[in-house]
Design a protein that fits this description.
- Helix content is 75%, strand content 0%.
- 14% of the residues are buried.
- It has two domains: 84 residues, no CATH class; 65 residues, no CATH class.
- With 187 residues, the protein is mostly helical.
- Helix 7 runs antiparallel to helix 8 and helix 9 runs antiparallel to helix 10.
- It is built from ten helices and no strands.
Length: 187
């Protein structure tokens, strides 16, 4: 004979039955998500997103995948890692920080090359860089070396317009003054 259930214990009975059902089967996506979170790998998150691209946990999986890729960028600290990250996550949570790292790595590469071409290339590809003034200052001696020996006043005026500050500018001013005084004497 069945015993009647106490009305006060009905919610607990329902909860216990739901817990048993969840433990026996439950939502396969949630089970897969729990398993994926245990692995914490890029491959795991990618596989999860392939299986559930618009699932209940897809946004969390995308954020976790980006976090794994970001940690790899920090570990590798290479232009290749940075560029790969930005290709995968151009608008991600860490994209701005990775862009600053990219700027720094390109700047380091230009400094290591120590050539006019490297600094010009850097300025062309990073016109808004935080290293803009420093790049211009490092370029000035190279540009001045190219024009030294010229007797064209306009060449030095153009140089000073482009590089108004620093030791190279001081040298160009002295040469320009000398050329102007020689030009006046010749007239």
């Amino acid at each position: 004979m069945l015993k009647t259930v106490n009305p006060k214990s009905r919610p607990w009975t329902c909860f216990a039955l739901l817990a048993i059902v969840a433990a026996c089967g439950g939502d396969p996506e949630e089970r897969d998500w729990q398993s994926t979170m245990m692995k914490r790998s890029a491959e795991g998150y990618e596989q999860f997103l392939e299986q559930y691209p618009e699932g209940a946990f897809s946004q969390k999986a995308r954020e976790a995948l980006e976090s794994v890729h970001f940690k790899q960028v920090q570990k590798d600290n290479t232009l290749e890692a940075v560029e790969g990250f930005l290709k995968r996550h151009p608008d991600g949570l860490h994209a701005d920080e990775v862009r600053r790292t990219e700027d720094l790595l390109h700047w380091v590469r230009a400094q290591q090359a120590r050539s006019l071409e490297a600094y010009e290339s850097f300025l062309k590809s990073h016109p808004d860089s935080r290293f803009l003034d420093e790049a211009r200052a490092k370029m000035a001696p190279f540009v001045l070396a190219e024009i030294l020996g010229s007797t064209d006043i306009k060449v030095y005026e153009d140089f000073l317009e482009r590089f108004p500050e620093g030791p190279s500018a001081d040298n160009a001013r002295k040469t320009l003054e000398l050329l102007r005084s020689e030009h006046k004497t010749a007239q």
